[in-house]
Amino acid sequence: MKEPVRVAVTGAAGQIGYSLLFRIAAGDMLGPDQPVILQLLEVTPALKALSGVVMELNDGAFPLLHSIVTSDDPMVAFKDADYALLVGAMPRKAGMERGDLLSANGGIFKPQGEALSEVASRGVKVLVVGNPANTNALIAQQNAPKLDPKQFTAMVRLDHNRAISQLAAKIGSPVSAVKNITIWGNHSSTQYPDLSQATVNGKPALGQVDQSWYETEYIPTVAKRGAAIIEARGASSAASAASAAIDHMRDWALGTQEGEWVSMGIPSDGSYGIPEGLIYGFPVTVKGGQYTVVPNLPVSDFSRARMDATAQELAEERDAVRGLGLVK
Ligand code: NAD
Ligand code: LMR
């Protein structure tokens, strides 16, 4: 058996946490031979609820669950963390403007970035789930000067999984037959679910659906799926979001399948003309714990316009948090 690794999760008493923690403890994220120490962060008023979640985790008698730490102090929860899943965020409330949301989240992700920089493992892998995920990841990253900016990522994997599932259903194929979809850009309705390189059963996806369905139904359905779930459930997606977080971290830690890529929100290195530094969804492969943007994919005019529009939205979010003094 391997030595245990430390997995920090914020917002641990929330909806996503209630699904995520049990999947991590079961070994779904880091494999069946990797014991974990869960280090759970919550705000002070939620610590009582968190203690109930801890009781349930213990009652699961998970062989891989070495131990659990709970705290309302990021310096404690992030101490020596090898993985950090930043789920807790300020939800948008009635009457709140985008700027208010960004400012409220700045109050969360700035100190969390600072704490990660000070006390986490030097190789920590950080995934931001809490919305607006890409810009929250940017805030945390920019306030963590002692870590490599590439250690901060944002979740577009739920969008990626939604894109696979919608396409598979349309064609009547199992999801396992769908490969190489990309979610470019922001985890928001401007995201671009790109089928130009995707295959289903080894054949080009776009040869198996018509262009008008792709443009007028598929792209908006994937991009607005989060809102559709809120409308139907009366609460935002939780189990599927947790599952996507598991997928993101598993692939980052253990690697992607040969010949396939996944979508991750990562700091742009200027690839595909996306402004450097934005945390933007790209197609990536992973080997040895390091992700690489898939190079040299052709970009049509149709794709270019959509990739630029979502980059523009992220640049506006960055400028807004820059105006608040949260990023350089
Ligand atoms: P939730 O409200 O059920 O839980 C959030 C938890 O975070 C709460 O328990 C709250 O006490 C805690 N929290 C708030 N501030 C905190 C802080 N500073 N430190 C630690 N904990 C803190 O929400 P949820 O349904 O679990 O969703 C969490 C976030 O994930 C939301 O921002 C949601 O919009 C986002 N989300 C993202 C995706 C994605 O694909 N990126 C998908 C679904 C949901
Ligand atoms: C989702 O995509 O399901 C969520 O990000 C929606 C939301 O606003 O919480």
What does this structure look like?
This protein is of the alpha/beta class and 328 residues long. It contains 10 helices and 14 strands. Strands 3-2-1-4-5-6 form a 6-stranded parallel beta sheet. Strands 7-10-11 form a 3-stranded antiparallel beta sheet. Strand 8 and strand 9 form a beta hairpin. Helix 4 crosses helix 5 and helix 6 packs antiparallel against helix 7. The structure holds nicotinamide-adenine-dinucleotide and (2S)-2-hydroxybutanedioic acid (LMR).
> Total number of β-strand segments?
14
Q: What small molecules are bound in this structure?
A: nicotinamide-adenine-dinucleotide, (2S)-2-hydroxybutanedioic acid
- Euclidean distance between termini CA atoms: 43 Å
Give the radius of gyration: 19 Å
Structural class: alpha/beta
The order of strands across the largest sheet is 3-2-1-4-5-6
* Average pLDDT number: 97
Largest sheet: 6 strands, parallel
- Shape descriptor reads globular
Q: What are the low-pLDDT stretches, counting only 5+ consecutive residues below 50?
A: none
Q: What proportion strand? A: 15-25%
How much helicity do the residues have? 40-55%
The ordered H/E elements are EHEHEHEHEHEHEEEEEHHHEEEH
* Count of alpha/pi helices: 10
Gist of the model:
By secondary structure, this protein is α/β, with parallel strands linked by helices. It has helices at 15-25, 47-59, 74-77, 98-119, 133-142, 157-171, 211-223, 225-233, 239-254, 301-323; strands spanning 5-10, 36-41, 65-71, 83-86, 125-128, 152-154, 178-179, 182-184, 192-194, 199-200, 203-204, 262-267, 279-287, 290-293.
